[in-house]
Amino acid sequence: SDCPFCSVQNRPLKSRLSFIKIKKVLEDFRTLGAKAMEITGGGNPLLYRDEDKNINDIIEYGYELGYKVGIITNSHDISKIKIENHSKITWIRISLIQLDEGIFPEQYFFNDFPLNKLGFSYIIYEKTTKESINKIAKLVSLHPGIKFVRLAGDCLIKGNNAEVREKF
Predict the structure, then answer these.
(1) Which end of the chain is less packed: N or C, by CB atoms within 10 Å?
(2) Angstrom distances, CA of residue 14 to CA of 21, 48, 56, 80, 138
(3) How many C-beta atoms lie closer than 10 Å to residue 109's C-beta?
(4) Which residues make Cβ contacts (< 8 Å) with residue 84, sequence separation at least 6?
(5) Digit-coded pLDDT (tens) for 103-135
């Protein structure tokens, strides 16, 4: 996705942390008293790979350290998360930008992830149409047990939330 509202869109595309560095950071923050970790990174952190490590290794290590684990992703398919790790995750927030990119509500796949831990997020931007909002409503109707739906303006544009509130 090329989300116009992405707060990390200008980062170097090849920037990433090795699994060893992630472990060290998680350990260091834990000694400082951190209680929760949010896995994000501009797009789909579920695609994380470092040699033989993947997103499940990060979830498992954070959980072992006692963190509450949250994930923000734009993926419509969270099957990369092993079912045995579902209980280790406190919440997942899925950006619904892919509804504007040709993915239909019926194509979202949550791999039996508990809906009461799942939230949807949509940033209203210049390409948002009534059809976009109708797709969101359809997705919610297909999954009525979800924890929350967050609709917001672009936080990178001053005053956009008020503008969005008036328009929608």
Answers:
(1) C
(2) 16, 12, 21, 21, 36
(3) 12
(4) none
(5) 999 999 999 999 999 999 998 888 888 899 999
